[in-house]
Amino acid sequence: MVSTGYCCSSGIGSSGKRAIDKLKINHDYGGGKMLKIFRKTLVATLAVVALMATTVAQARVDGNTITLGAAVSETGKYSTNGKHTRNGYNLAVKRINEMGGVTVGGKSYKFKITYYDDESNSGRAAQLAERLIKQDGVKYMLGPYSSGLTKAIAPVTEENKIPMVEANGASRSLFTKGYKYLFAVLSAANQYLEVAIDLAVEKNGGKPVKIAMAFEQDAFSQDVRLGIVEAAERTGSKIIIDDKLPKELNDMAATLAKVRATRPDVLVVSGHSKGALTAIRQISEMKVDVPMLAMTHCDASKLAKQHGKKSEYALCAAQWHKSLSYSDRFFGDGKKFDSDFTNEYGYAPPYQAAESAAALLVWKAAFERANSFDTKKVRDALALTDMQTFYGNIKFSNAGQNIAKPMVLFQVRCEGNKCENKVVAPTKWASAELVHPIPKWSDR
């Protein structure tokens, strides 16, 4: 609802009433005619203001265009993944529009996205969500990159009853707030690397393992940590190093010195793209040997391309991989999406781009299922989502969490100077066997 700045049930503001009252005082002195003229002028003015307010409220659909809003990181520490998010959104918009758009009420509509740069700052993200809703009249939102920024925006969209389909906020805490207008296409963060602990225990003959871990202090990484803690408890394993990564994610030498001294069975690192690059750089420089290295954001940081053989054998959590067999009519399967995205943007899509593209497919299906632009009807249609996309199956729990898609793990593998990611879990989709333990640096 857009405020016009006027009050009172009659639709006439307090300043207008005061003016009328002044004229009433002079009514007995021949002011009656003037009062009637004033009233007509005021009513006409208020009608124009009301029309303007209605126009803003309806800005979500302009002609044959459905406008979605998004605050995405173009600058700041999340700018790399912000780019992947934006590119995924844009490719899906282009493909959907090319293939007939969105059909509502027998008419075809095109998608358009209004973007703002949240500067990788949660306060700024919340402000921009307010701007998109209150000033730009956006009634349908796409999520930002990262759990922290999604957590900043979600209360704003919820308060205004604006549906948001988000693709890059995996924090479990997003789904414990009772939100009714938040829907996430990705798996929750606590699921990211817990399977790595299960694999380590399996490779250790079913016996508990020693775990070292280092995490960024953001919402996403702390939820990944929680998943590791729960996996350790479930398997009887022991956490022997539990470190915090520095705020700038540029140095983890102190943690690696502890790893060298204590010899854990598995090292777990989560610090988004910058943290992943820092970890591989310093592990290779310090020649730190560990039987298993499990990380997040390997593909988003282009780990294999950036560090080549230095990154070999890193075990990486991913929401999606191109070798998976899911498919839809817009992108075909994962390999076709990979090819289309690479042709469009000049690099292979990390899972952040894939899940972002999937969010637009969910929006299209919801609009057509609702056959309406009413936000409540569209929200209810989103809640009933049960579909397959090239990215995976999508079905939302009552809390808005995708409960239909498992995480995957891939391992960086190299042949000569060519390094690529090979899926090693779940076994159903595995394209290679896990190499364990990681060969020592002296044997590489």
Please, could you describe this protein's structure?
- This protein has 444 residues and is of the alpha/beta class.
- It has 3 domains: 14-57; 61-187 and 324-395, Response regulator (Rossmann fold); 191-318 and 407-443, Response regulator (Rossmann fold).
- 41% of the residues lie in helices and 19% in strands.
- It has helices spanning 14-25, 32-57, 79-98, 122-135, 147-159, 194-203, 219-235, 253-262, 272-286, 303-307, 334-345, 351-370, 375-383, and strands spanning 61-62, 65-72, 102-104, 107-117, 141-142, 164-166, 182-184, 210-215, 238-244, 266-270, 293-295, 315-318, 327-328, 332-333, 386-389, 392-395, 408-415, 418-425.
- The strands form 5 sheets. A 7-stranded mixed β-sheet has the order 9-8-10-11-12-17-18, sandwiched between helices. A 4-stranded mixed β-sheet has the order 1-2-4-3. The chain has a 3-stranded parallel β-sheet with strand order 5-6-7.
- Helix 12 (351-370) crosses helix 13 (375-383).
- The model is unreliable at 1-31, 33-38 and 40-59 (pLDDT under 50).
Main attributes?
about 450 residues, alpha/beta, Rossmann fold, 4-stranded mixed beta sheet, disordered N terminus
